[in-house]
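Our preliminary data section would be incomplete without showing what the modeling component actually yields. Below, a chain of 162 amino acids is followed by its predicted structure, encoded as tokens that our downstream tools consume directly.
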Amino acid sequence: MTGEAGATELTRYGRGRGRKAWTGMRIDGLTEDELAAAWVAGYERGGDGWFIGRDPREMTQAQLEAMGHEPISPMQAIRAKCLDCCAWSSDEVRKCVALACPSWPFRTGKNPWRQEMSEEQRKARRQRALQSGLGSRRQARSASSAAASVSEVRDDRLQHRP
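Predicted structure:
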């Protein structure tokens, strides 16, 4: 964004994000149309006569999207901020030496505090997903055929017990 009124910048998906720079402007003397435009752009009246950013928890998804924000995960948001901080160079993000930055451990787009799932945990999660109807039909068929073969083996063992 060039900082000029009405300048358009592009989002990372190439969508235009029309945004007038309301930061640093006093509210006194603005017309109702200008106040409405500032509201749509994500600003609200502050207690001291200056604009402040609106609370995103009180905004709808449509309002956020109108501002140019796309639905992304928190990890993607951290990664995007790190790229922004490093002049959009992924190499510079990887080499980042801002070790005191709270985002530093997350800069590569992965949560280092999250433990890897064991194969047993993956199987259990996959089975729960299939049982709740979240898996694909092919997965459901293969899981049901595997379960059927296991139950047949159990039946055979029970019938042949002395």
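Residues 1-7 have pLDDT under 50 and may be disordered. The chain has three domains: 8-66, 74-106, 119-159. Preliminary results of this kind motivate Aim 1 of the renewal.
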